[in-house]
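BUG: 3D viewer hangs when loading the predicted structure for this chain

Environment: internal workstation, default settings.
Expected: structure renders.
Actual: progress bar stalls at 90%.

Input used:
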Amino acid sequence: MSFSNEVKNEIFSTITDKDKRFACLYGMLLYCKSFSKDMIIFQTENAAVSRLIFNLIKDVFQNKVHAVVDEKNDKYICSVSDKDEINYISDTYSINLSDRKINKDLIVNNSMGAFTAGIFLSCGSVNDPSKEYHLEYASPCIQLAEELREILNVIGINAKIFERKNMSVVYIKESESIEDTLTYMGAQQCTIELINVKIFKDVRNKANRLANCDNANIDKVVNAAIKQTEDIKYIQSQFGLKCLTPELKEVAEIRLENSDMSLQEIGNSLKNPISRSGVNHRFKKIAEIADRIREGKFTFDEKN
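Structure tokens produced before the viewer hung:
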């Protein structure tokens, strides 16, 4: 089951009392794609949502409106086709078919979340958080999109709008805003699931960064050891290691015999152990001598 359907199923289980049922159905009706004087059509891939629509219409209108549910091509279509019943629905919710607007007076304060949930059930979706943070409502017109964005912005959710074909899409990208939206609509368990996914992704990304850092450090150490060995062998081929001071000769010989030793390990192996930075300083002196030999600026009697 997709994460979007998980959210819708959880919402379905929270629409319990009379006020929430009324507000939820209002959101679904107002934002459904097809609402005309001849036909009201809801289309969903979620069987639970289709049952919810059917039951809400039955409960809210006390059997005065008759909905029909059909299954076609793995989709569920809930429709009302009687013109008198459509007029009754429009009058009950004060819906102007030519200019749909939200009438907040119809929504009691504790049911605004259920109203927003109804909008989501009618035209919303949310991506799998393990892949992308994205929640959207495909509103049938720009005015309803702007009114929904205002509702979300009032409760601190950063929602934006873009146009897609004939739809005005209200969308949310930030994970925190998606968490707040899911909670507001009543999908608390899905909010927890999203948070857990985000924690896992953060830990995994941190582990990857540390692994990349470790790999980069290993590469740096290996490349440094290769360069040190090349310099030592070049000096050896030109003048022999006897041209080095005893301190430089000692670290040079250890490096030639132990290409994989770290600077700290070399420092600990000396007759008189020194720190990592001390060993690094000696290798810098060896590198300088190798460079001077390559440039023809080094003579055997010049001790370093």
